[in-house]
Amino acid sequence: MSTTYDLAVIGGGVHGSTCALFAARGGMKVALIERGPLCREASGVNAGTLTMQMTRVALIPYALRAHAMWANASEWLGHDVGVVVCDGLSLAFTEQEEELLSFRAGKRREAGAPIELISGADALRVEPGISDKVRLAGYCKVDGYANAYLTGLAFRRALLGAGVDLMENTPASGIDREESGFAVKTATGVVRAKRVVLAGGVWIEPMLGWLGIDLPIKTLINQLVVTERVRPVMRTVVGIANGLLSLKQYPHGTVVIGGGWQGIGDRERGGVELMPDRIVGNVRLACHAIPELKDARVARAWAGLEAETADALPAAGPIPGIPDAYVCGSVHSGYTSGPYIARLLADRILGHEPALPLFPIDRLLNSGDAERGPQ
Amino acid sequence: MSHDVIILGAGPAGANAALAAAETGLKVALFDQQPEAGGQVWRAPLPGLALPASPEKAGGDALRARLAASSVDLRLGRTVWSVGAHFRLDALGPDGNETVEAPRLIAATGAHERVVPFPGWTLPGVIGLAAATVLLKSHGALPGQRVVVAGCGPLLAAVATGIVKMGGTVVAIVDLAGPGDWLRLLPALATQPRLLARGAGWALKLGGKRVPVHFRHGVRAALGADAVARVRLAPVDAQGAFTAGPEITLEADALTVGHGLVPGNELPRLFRTEQTFDRRRGGFVPVLDAFGRTSLDGLYACGDGAGLRGVLVAEAAGQLAGLACAHDAGALTAAAFAERTKAPAAAAAQARPFSDAMAGMMALRPAQVAAIPPETVVCRCEDVTRAEIEAAYDDGARDLNQMKQFTRCGMGPCQGRFCGDVAGEILAAKVGSREKVGTYTARPPLRPVPLADLMGSFDYGDIPIPRPAPL
Amino acid sequence: MAQETDGRPVVTISVDGAPLEARAGEMLTTALARSGLLRLRQSPRNGAPRGAFCHMGVCQECALHVDGAVRQACLTPVRAGMAVERRGVL
To answer: What Gene3D superfamilies does this protein map onto (chain A) (predicted)?
Structure first.
């Protein structure tokens, strides 16, 4: 183990993998350390939605650029990850939802998302599968979805192709600071590197703890449902005004129903249990939006983790007080925006000025622990 | 809590667990997908069907009578779709969704068939061997008019005899084992003289009909356009690998084929209890104490779903699990528990040599898996071939779940039940062991459920939509 | 292929729009097989014919539409007038 890497990335999800990939392509010798197989937590089991209409306003500029990355993934990643670019609709069924939608779509439009408000009748023309009870819809042509379970396969090939030393199934247990950089302790030995990126998703909190930094990260347990293959019932990505539904049908026929209804679990155990009442609630919402869906059968349900900082904005940038240490993750709807934000960080590590600002964590450390964000 | 114990599966194990627990005063809910108790072994004939008497029917009728006379809350014809901790179970029944809760849960979910793939195994007209027993015992139907009965284990003779009795023609019996393999088991089989005599009776009946038996042969391919029309056989060695020798082609309109059973252990897996790989027990099985307690407090498992041991052990194991529940719930003193468990423990011990011998005949033969041609479909739901599974290995997949993500193998509506064991074996041959390869993560629902049934009728305004995410 | 030993009434169901005689209460798989309807669906990628396989509600090969809803033929007893639609490639 005499090699000293230019960069060790800990955490092999979308953030860590993208960062490692672009750093390696920028000429660095990179090790990617992942406790399991690549992209098997949040990055492999999320709903794959690439929508602006569930993205936080502050992240819209990033999400738009990330969407473009996903849309041509075959070029920079060498695999299309099953990405389909299509129209997206966010639906309002009640007067209250109309108000919410108008406000939220307006804010997102101000941030650059090309969302128009259209009538229920017009929405039906965009998506013949939706219910005729729709009163108003947010309509965005920059939308789509990926096949999240292919993410690991895609990144694996790309990372190996870029010469990254892939250390899968290698849990890291700590980091020592040394004169020339960092010594990452893993189950199979010490990995030395001049720089480190902590990209562990919900595990960023304990990872930062190794360096003496206390950054609370909340773990969301998002429930998801997938149907068996059914005949085409929809052609767009469909959500609702408050963001608690995401719905799309893959080319092979399965329909994924998500929206962030919470199951039971935690960082240590993962998503351990689904709440049946919430599965029913989510399914009712889905069938209310796409009535034809009722004839499908649920094939599988599961829960995926999502990390959230106190202000629900990313932790992506240098770690204060520790030169050459970086953090990258906790991006709301991180699958959508992750590749772009991780690429910005890779740019910064390679000594280039990022095209858009990063999200340094200083703001979260200075404010103490009084506030947990606008919930 | 609506009950003291919930039992999933009303076969010999689950039904006996229910009776044993109920007799101590516990309030028991017993769930099954089938409309009648009995499981696969003691399956009830469909209403209105007059089928000839058989030991299975008699055994099943007796069990159903005891359940009917007991205090057990029978929930039959239910599709269980969610099982949560502490324990809450949701099932779809005639009146929509029903929820029960109890501090204890017994998994008695039985086994399903293993068929090691061969070209043509997906053709209509090719069915499982256990599937054939369902047709014969419960549906009163023949698998076809001219049937090839192939695979391994005691079901071969049972199915062939059933077909002959019902007036069908058995074109041939094709047994992976040889006569010598059966003879070697005689001492173990002789521990259950009644069952041995029954087996001998099957052999005599089949001999009288001059049914050809091809020992040490396997199915090389099922052939046909829209349904099976011909079955091609080839000789195999003791490990199940094809060997040089003349192939035999038979005309048939049905092929029933089975290579043992796989424990339906998804409940213990759902709760992530400790499990172990035991080839003779059919694959991955939960680690249990002598009374069926899993590593999770309050969760018990018994019967073939906890590891294949057959009906005799299942009955006893069910009683033991039911009594363990009663003891752990405080309904039985330690002394009464010790007294009452004596008989079933002895019965289980006595049945072991026979069940071990049978389980050995039905264990997965790795050489048979090695002989699956590359282009043969392994995952029926998603049309995933052996070559695609191996390509996933080449792409870095080292466990079943990673392979599933790379290929969709196991993502279909059977939820990996029919491909998991064989796909695991294919991957294990590359990775090194079944333990490393593991099992598909168990996910709810336990069976696919129509969204329409799940959601029932509702008003949009009543959906408890959570707070919106931050803008 | 059912044994002719039962006195269950003969009823008519429809399969893909065509009438089919069946016995009330018999399993739908049995009624279909008697008329040579072994192919119940086509496989998703190869479009290969598939029929009932496990007959115990596990394999899902016999899933089809009964009166509009997806049901497993091996768990569905015949009722007079039921409308059965076999599924194509899904």
So the answer is: D-Amino Acid Oxidase, subunit A, domain 2 (3.30.9.10), FAD/NAD(P)-binding domain (3.50.50.60)
Closest-CA residue of chain B to C5: B50
Give the whole-number percent of chain C exceeding pLDDT 90.
81
Contact A344, A354 (CB under 8 A): yes
List the CATH code of the domain at C10-85: 3.10.20.440
From CA B136, how far away is CA B43, in angstroms rounded?
A: 10
Chains contacting A (3+ CB pairs below 8 angstroms) = B, C
The nearest alpha carbon in chain C to A250 belongs to: C90
Residue B304: inside a domain, yes or no?
Answer: yes
Question: Does residue B445 have a cis peptide bond before it, meaning omega lies within 30 degrees of 0?
Answer: yes
pLDDT digit string, tens, across residues A237-294: 999 998 899 999 999 999 999 999 999 999 988 888 999 999 999 999 999 999 999 9
Q: In chain B, which residues have their Cβ closer than 8 Å to the Cβ of A57? A: 471
The residue-averaged pLDDT of B220-233 equals 97
Task: Tell me which residue in B82, B452, B467 faces A274 most closely, judged by beta carbons.
Answer: B82
d(CA B384, CA B108): 30
Inter-chain CB proximity A296 and C90 less than 8 Å = no
pLDDT at A371 over 50: no
Closest Cα in chain B to C6:
B49
Give the pLDDT score at B470.
84
For B124, B144, B182, C31, the CA distances from B229, given in Å and listed in that order, are 10, 11, 30, 20
Task: Test B467 with A375 for CB contact under 8 angstroms.
Answer: yes
A178 at interface of C, judged by CB pairs closer than 8 A = no
Q: Which chain A residue is nearest to residue C65, measuring alpha carbons?
A: A295
Residue A235 contacts residue A127 (beta carbons within 8 Å)? yes
Other C-beta atoms lying within 10 Å of the C-beta of residue B375: 10
- ipTM over the 0.90 cut-off: yes
Q: Which residues of A touch C68 (CB under 8 A)?
A: 295
Q: pLDDT band for position B284 (50/70/90)?
A: very high
Examine the domain organization and report whether B291 and B340 are in the same domain.
yes
Tokens coding A147 = 């096949």
Task: From B19, B88, B12, select the one nearest B325 (Cα to Cα).
Answer: B19
**Does A60 map to a domain?**
no
> Could you give the CA distance from residue C84 to residue C90 in angstroms, rounded to a whole number?
17
Examine the domain organization and report whether B250 and B267 are in the same domain.
Answer: no
Contacts of B383 in chain C (CB under 8 A): 43-46, 48
> What subunits make at least 3 CB pairs under 8 angstroms with B?
A, C
Q: Out of C44, C60, C70, whose CB is closest to A295?
A: C70
- Per-residue pLDDT tens digits for A186-238: 999 999 999 999 999 999 999 999 999 999 999 999 999 999 999 999 999 99
Phi (first) and psi of residue A143, to 5 degrees:
-150, -175
H runs (alpha helix) in B70-208: 129-134, 155-165, 179-189, 193-208
Partner residue opposite A56 with nearest CB, options B88, B90, B470: B470
Q: Please give the backbone phi and psi of residue A188, each rounded to the nearest 5 degrees, phi first.
A: -115, 10
Residue A79: inside a domain, yes or no? no
Same domain, A223 and A139: yes
- CA–CA distance, B291 with B406 (Å, rounded to integer): 40
The reply to whether residue C58 touches residue B49, judged by beta carbons under 8 angstroms, is no
**A357 lies in some domain:** yes
- Hey, how many other C-beta atoms are within 10 angstroms of the C-beta on A125? 9
Out of A93, A276, A374, the one facing B90 most closely (by C-beta) is: A276
Which residues in chain B are contacts of A169 at CB distance < 8 A? Answer: 398
